[in-house]
């Protein structure tokens, strides 16, 4: 005869707590290159099974794609730290246009500003807070009646091994090296922009070497850290993580209810650390940059105008607008892309309406910039990247003749 529900002890599905946040959040946090302070926080990692798997994840690019008006090319963003900063800073939310500049020596101690040092202090304070909370939890495991050795063992082993994992990756996983002498004209101006889902864009400016460091350097595992082959380090962390997982899953179910509650509290702190850590990491990364502009723009036409006006010199030299596919291939947009540079003080949307009216010969309704059909307009079927009319008009706008595209590799 089964015991009544009133006499049955409480049971917790502790294993589900370890993956509550999700593996993707923990992986994003790992790839965002945690600082030393973030590695030393007294909380376990979330989703320890993440660390049992292969390190092929280092080769995966982020979900963002950038375009370079000076290099006239697009590429996936490989800097997971910048990707994390974009997401947590909501830099590509609708109607937002942001411009950042990379200051000289942004990654060096000499190049750190007051804002950067402020966020370093915040990181240290958060690490100290986690140690205070962890110490309080350990004191509770000793003083609270009903707690056994299981709670002490699992909390210390899980947290201690997590610190080992984070430190191992901190010293062994680095951005791919890009020596200065392999970058062509490293001191020339460079810029990239990332388009959001709607009317938003992010611009990053600097010299060619700095922009390359911030966009195209993916993470790699060092070949021989401390003279030990990388495969041995990876085998050590993966096997150790598996053993810790087996210990937790075998010990916690045999502990008391109070033991399981203590483990749940520790995991709750770990969940909070992932969310807080991602936000702090993003703010710390952005503090290395100088914010040049941060405005709200109502339409995508205004986004287009800001980009074209900002990189008008690159358009005159490299014709990046057609290559990027930024604008629809219509005669109205072609004329607008030229005149929007001439009349910088005129509202881009108003200018576009006037151009459409002049083409139609009569008033027409406002056209959505993303629409594929424009009344009275004609499609441009020429496969050439730049039409003769645009080149002729652009030659009148910019000083000097249109130069041939220079090598930008």
UniProtKB/TrEMBL annotation:
It comes from the Eukaryota. This is Uncharacterized protein. It comes from Lindgomyces ingoldianus.
